[in-house]
Amino acid sequence: MLEDYIKSFREAFAVFQHAKIFDAGTKTIKHIKPLSEKILQSLDGNLDFLGPDIPSSVATATAEGRLDPITMEAFGNSKKAKSCLDPNVTLASDQVLRAETQIQSRR
Fold this sequence. Notes:
41% of the residues lie in helices and 7% in strands.
């Protein structure tokens, strides 16, 4: 058995039980099932494997079909499509940061 088998198993379990989803009611990204303190402790508080935090402006634009989730570029040429991101939000995710920069440079 691999040394990190238990850690890998816990992470895989967390991915399916606590995946991040878009909540259309609040227009935010949240976990499909809240993370308990026990789960957080078993993962040493490291949740990077569940994906980056995504600002609600990016999540909403993607869910509404105004932002390509692969290229992180706005669809169409309309001013509304290009202004779907909040330029004041920054993330650790390079892909989202690039998208925000591209949207800003088009303005």
